[in-house]
Amino acid sequence: LLGDALDLLAREHVDVVLLDLSLPDSFGLDTLARVKAARPLVPVVVLTRTKDEVLALEALRRGAQDYLVKGGGDGDLVRRAIRYAIERSRVEVALRLSEDRFRAVFQNAGVGVVLSEAEGRIVQANPAFCSMIGYAEAEVVGRSFRDFSHPEDAARADALRAEMRAGGRDSYNLTKRYLARDGRVVWGRPTVTAVRGSDSDGSEVRVAVTVVEDVTERQRLEDHMRLAATVFENSGDGLFVTDDHCNIVHVNPAFTEITGFDPEDVLGKTPKVLSSGRHDHEFYERMWESLRDSGKCQGEMWD
């Protein structure tokens, strides 16, 4: 009885179901449908007396792994069909698990992940990338990366993608600007990797996987550091920098001009090399107290 079989399927691990479509309590493709509804991933081999090509094709369309007619072959045929069904089911389960893992990583990744065709047309984009540029996925899919790239950066990215398509490289990365929906310029560092295959020699790019890290804040800090370095080097005031042990690690040109000390004379030493001896211990204590309390001190001293 089908009812007993469904109870067994609910309780036990089953590798394959050998199913007759004509049972006392069920008949035809409804029998197959009830088994597949109960255990969608268990392979089903239909074994029936009905030799009907239309019925066989419909059974396969509805999820049967194979359709065998009783008396149409020997026992080896049935055994081979069962072995094949089990192996195929295992491959399908493994593929489904792999796809589920990829989908989980794709959707929840903290960086942008985009799947695109070889020419750059976007097929799928994850929430992190869409949030980065301010578009919904439906507004991104079907469009080219060029549509969201800063005009000054598009040509370089196109050249690298063309080189990858031609087989000159399997991946590349660069730093480029994206144009967000609200007009912001977003700095990103995309790493693009080709997935090849499908042609005779396996060199054709089937899809490109692009992982985009938002480096806008890093770029801003680097710009500020370059600006600070420019100010430091070109200031008319003598400047020096110490580490947390008070060892001098950098001096600017004005420092050398004012004090006469070349960088190699003072690097690795403490500011005591400038001490004139005209200030007592209490003077330096007050200076350090001000540094500790307010983070700075200001005044005059003899050097």
Task: Detail the topology: elements first, then pairings.
Blueprint: H1 2-11, E1 17-19, E2 22-23, E3 26-27, H2 29-38, E4 44-48, H3 53-61, E5 66-69, H4 75-108, E6 112-116, E7 122-125, H5 127-133, H6 137-140, H7 151-165, E8 171-173, E9 176-179, E10 185-196, E11 205-214, H8 216-234, E12 240-242, E13 248-251, H9 253-259, H10 263-266, H11 281-294
Parallel strand pairs: 1-4, 4-5
Antiparallel strand pairs: 2-3, 6-7, 6-11, 8-10, 9-10, 10-11, 12-13
Helix pairs in contact: 1-2
**Which range does the strand content fall in?**
15-25%
Mean pLDDT across all amino acids: 88
Helix-strand string: HEEEHEHEHEEHHHEEEEHEEHHH
Question: What is the overall silhouette?
Answer: elongated
Helix fraction?
40-55%
Oligomer: single chain
Low-pLDDT stretches are none
Care to count the β-strands? 13
How would you classify the helix and strand content by structural class? alpha+beta
Radius of gyration (Å): 36 Å
Distance between the termini: 103 Å
| Number of alpha- plus pi-helical segments | 11
Q: Could you give a short account of the major beta sheet?
A: 6 strands, antiparallel
Summarize the structure.
With 303 residues, this protein is of the alpha+beta class. The chain has helices spanning 2-11, 29-38, 53-61, 75-108, 127-133, 137-140, 151-165, 216-234, 253-259, 263-266, 281-294; strands at 17-19, 22-23, 26-27, 44-48, 66-69, 112-116, 122-125, 171-173, 176-179, 185-196, 205-214, 240-242, 248-251. 18% of the residues are buried.
